Amino acid sequence: MDDMDLLAQRFEAGRGHLRGVAYRMLGSRSEAEDAVQEAWLRLSRSGAAGVENLGGWLTTVVARVCLDMLRARRTRREESLDGAGLEPVAGREAGGDAEQEALLAESVGLALLVVLDTLTPAERVAFVLHDMFDLPFEEIAQIVGRTPAAARQLASRARRRVKGAGPKPDADRARQRTVVEAFLAASRGGDFEALLALLDPEVVLRADAAAVVAGASPEVRGAAGVASTFSGRARAAVPALIDGAVGLVWAPGGRPRVAFAFTLREDKVVAIDLVADPERLGRLNLVILEDRPRGHPAGSGSER
């Protein structure tokens, strides 16, 4: 076995860790794979001579590649003025490790990925590297081009936003469905007061990058603002289970295009996350619920 084979073997041993780092930073499996592949290309060109900690070196390379990708993504989003339509839902790549993919997605969580999308690239990198992978701020500072103290502040700001993203959702599916269906009825009927009654005063509506490109606001806070956003709308949305929780989905022709993930607390809506990214939609377990006859008691019907 020559030196390149040995290097490739060492790289493959750490590929899972690198993929996890990249996925948490980018929220996209395909982009994470691209970042990891770029790290291998750089390693194969430079070799490992003089590298005392190959795992740490590769983590740094992947982090820098992800930071560049996040900055490029942010620039494209800011320059996108044409309001292009959403792409069809992408399927899983052939030969992918479905079990590992599912574990990876579960370990991050939809709500966290949506919140991470609201952070600046530097905040996201600092938070992921420190809070999720325990990298010291001295090393993070070199990646983001800041002082260690500034890197610490980046992670602290990100942490506050993540912790303030909302409380744990109510677990009772029947109650969830009652609230979500009431919200849908009020939205379709343009009943502003009914919407206000269902919303927590501090409710937040967040949209991912694809939903923003399609015309949604990145973030709306407060019951009045969220009620105004939905009043008279969501006519084509239908109730659905989204990773086991009741929400809404817009699926023209049976193809999911936007998922509305609800977070409830004490029968009030405290957060709504719009997910339109095709790859992220493809990872969600979406089950459209049957319409209940009018007057059908909540929780007494079957939910497939």
Report what the structure shows.
By secondary structure, the protein is of the alpha+beta class. It has 2 domains: 3-163, Butyryl-CoA Dehydrogenase, subunit A, domain 3, CATH 1.20.140.160; 173-288, Roll (Nuclear Transport Factor 2, Chain: A), CATH 3.10.450.50. It is 54% helix and 14% strand. It contains 14 helices and 7 strands. The chain has helices spanning 3-13, 15-26, 29-46, 54-79, 98-108, 110-116, 121-132, 137-144, 148-163, 173-189, 192-198, 209-213, 223-230, 278-283; strands at 199-207, 219-221, 238-242, 245-250, 258-265, 268-275, 286-288. The chain has a 7-stranded mixed β-sheet with strand order 2-1-6-5-4-3-7, with helices on both faces. β3 and β4 (245-250) form a beta hairpin. α7 (121-132) crosses α9. The protein is elongated and about 70 Å long. It starts with a helix and ends in a 16-residue tail after the last strand.
Features:
alpha+beta; Nuclear Transport Factor 2, Chain: A; 304 residues; disordered C terminus; Butyryl-CoA Dehydrogenase, subunit A, domain 3; single chain; 54% helix
